[in-house]
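Reviewer 2 asked us to include a model.

Predict the structure of this chain.
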Amino acid sequence: MNARIAALPLFALLALAGAASAETLLIERVQEENKAAMPARGQTMAEVEAKYGAPTEKLDPQGGQKRQWPTINRWAYPAFTVYFEKSRVIDVVANKADEEEIGPKPPIK
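Predicted model (structure tokens):
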């Protein structure tokens, strides 16, 4: 009887794992993709544009002198969004492949 009670949490975890595997998580897709397909931290705006072309959209800068924070520029490409502090890459975030994929929301304009 104790073995049956101990096995219940295991069956519950297996049932949840089956349901979760049907969804595509952005983080899982990004881990499988080649990291060279996105800009590296520290690259300049000129290097990013030379390698990946012009962005599909240059979003409004955020921060700046009024808020006493550095200005953050954001460039949107079809597969990722690049975040720059001054003219250097500080982060790159993969965009969702489709509406069904679970991941971050699009950048705020």
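The radius of gyration is 20 Å. The domain at 24-109 is CATH 3.30.1450 (Beta-lactamase Inhibitory Protein; Chain:B, domain 1). We have added this to the supplementary material.
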